[in-house]
TrEMBL record:
Subcellular location: Membrane
Name the UniProt record assigns to this protein: MLO-like protein
GO molecular function: calmodulin binding
Pfam family, any one: Mlo
GO biological process, one term: defense response
Assigned protein family: Belongs to the MLO family.
Membrane topology listed for this record: Multi-pass membrane protein
Top-level division of the source organism's lineage: Eukaryota
Organism: Panicum miliaceum (Proso millet)
Length: 452
């Protein structure tokens, strides 16, 4: 009996009936304390958002908590069903197809007593051997690695959500200076409605409606490069602001357009943090085609890049087309040029389609980066997964660029340009008197003063 206990101790595979109660209680205490701390932090963050009337951000937080609950349930299922899944046997020929790494003959020779068994399989509760010519569908060690992958998904989902919103808000802070200019008397004098000018003399038209804008191809080429260099200029912001107020509010209204854009960005963020079934399907597709020799992960990593660049180009082209439309309507304007609002500027006349493309690109890119760090943690940086190391480094750098571009440039640009459509995002009130009703349930006061 003593020999059996010693053998168990030597192999390091003691079960709970042979583990000191103080050790079990200590580990459980740490896990419970960490869980309570996390739940408390999320609860206080929710209270803070409610106190500051950040309904959109509060809804986004609730969605993040819901996604974490889903991932937690997936982790629980892996834990409960792991032993039974590892006992499902499949033919060895089927098990040797579509491998992420080259099949190693030496590793098979080192484990004659059990096919596909790793260190977790040494536990007596996992002792199971498939018939000859058969192997486990997913080994016990493989189930444990999947369990860790789910944990990585949860951590990186929260991390990427935080950085996406932080970078987006940092971008809108730049527009705060321009918004304050509209409260100054010099602004009203500069854009005096009694002044008449030719359309081509306005700075907005000069920047966007040049000779190159007469060619559709050149317009999109210039728009492609413009998204990287001052994607939103002062004249763009002020002109879109003026067109928005002229279309939806009474003349002379002291409206804080930047604050409204910030609320719209928060509403868009609420959509971006959600993980829908199609996004889960795209993630599973990435895992499915990660076959040795195919190099599909690199090509999959280019999809978010292409989408983000295409969306950014389209948004810049919309601004240019609005400037061209001003020159086509008349030759003389009064005060600041008024842009024409409408959904027809967007693909298929649906602005939300652009947001869904941003959502897909952001999730796909974040998933691929998470996948890289999980492989690094589980198998090492120079593992068989990364046989073409230079290609892997290029893919990770590409992912970092895409994530920054999406969060700091494309998403804020969409929040601004999407306001040119005919539907508003929330209910605006001035001095507690409603002036117009719109689609979303948000209620807030957007004055020229009190910007934050």
């Amino acid at each position: 009996m003593g020999g059996a206990g010693g053998g168990a101790a030597a192999s390091g595979t003691r079960s709970l009936d042979q583990t000191p109660t103080w050790a079990v209680a200590a580990v459980c205490a740490v896990i419970v304390a960490a869980s309570i701390l996390l739940e408390g932090l999320l609860h206080h963050l929710g209270q803070l958002l409610n106190k500051r009337r950040k309904k959109a951000l509060f809804d986004a937080l609730e969605k993040v908590k819901s996604e974490l609950m889903t991932l937690g349930f997936i982790s629980l299922l892996l834990t409960v069903t792991g032993r039974y899944i590892s006992r499902i046997c499949i033919p060895e020929g089927a098990a040797n197809t579509m491998l992420p790494c080259r099949l190693s003959v030496h590793s098979e020779a080192k484990e004659p007593e059990g096919h596909g068994r790793r260190h977790l399989s040494e536990d007596p509760s996992y002792l199971f051997s498939c018939p000859k010519g058969m192997v486990s569908l997913v080994s016990a060690d493989g189930m444990h690695q999947l369990h860790i992958f789910v944990f990585f998904l949860a951590v990186f989902h929260v991390t990427f959500s935080f950085f996406t919103m932080s970078l987006g808000r940092a971008k809108t802070r730049i527009w705060k200076v321009w918004e304050k200019e509209t409260c100054l008397p010099t602004y009203e004098f500069q854009y005096d409605p009694s002044k008449f000018r030719l359309t081509h003399q306005t700075s907005f038209v000069r920047q966007h409606a040049s000779c190159w804008s007469k060619s559709t191809i050149l317009l999109y080429v210039v728009s492609f490069f413009r998204q990287f260099f001052r994607s939103v200029r002062r004249t763009d912001y002020l002109t879109l602001r003026h067109g928005f107020i002229a279309a939806h509010l009474s003349p002379g209204t002291k409206f804080n357009f930047r604050k409204y854009i910030k609320r719209s960005l928060e509403d868009d963020f609420k959509t971006v943090v959600a993980i829908s079934p199609p996004l889960w399907a795209s993630a599973l597709a990435v895992m499915l085609v990660n076959v040795h020799g195919w190099h599909n992960l690199f090509w999959f990593s280019t999809i978010p890049l292409v989408l983000i660049l295409a969306v950014g180009t389209k948004l810049q082209a919309i601004i240019a087309m609005m400037a061209i439309a001003i020159t086509e309507r008349h030759t003389v304007i009064q005060g600041m040029p008024v842009v024409k609002l409408g959904d027809d500027h967007f693909w298929f006349g649906k602005p939300r389609l652009v947001l869904h493309l941003i959502h897909f690109a952001s999730f796909q890119n974040a998933f691929e980066i998470t996948y890289f760090f999980w492989i690094w943690y589980e198998f090492g940086l120079r593992s068989c997964f990364h046989d073409n190391f230079e290609l892997i480094i290029a893919r990770v750098c590409l992912g970092a660029v895409v994530q920054f571009t999406c969060s700091y440039i494309t998403l804020p640009l969409y929040a601004l340009v999407s306001q040119v459509n005919t539907h508003l995002h929330c209910m605006l009130t001035f001095n507690h008197q409603p002036t117009l009703s719109i689609n979303k349930t948000n209620t807030s006061q957007h004055f020229c003063q009190g910007d934050n």
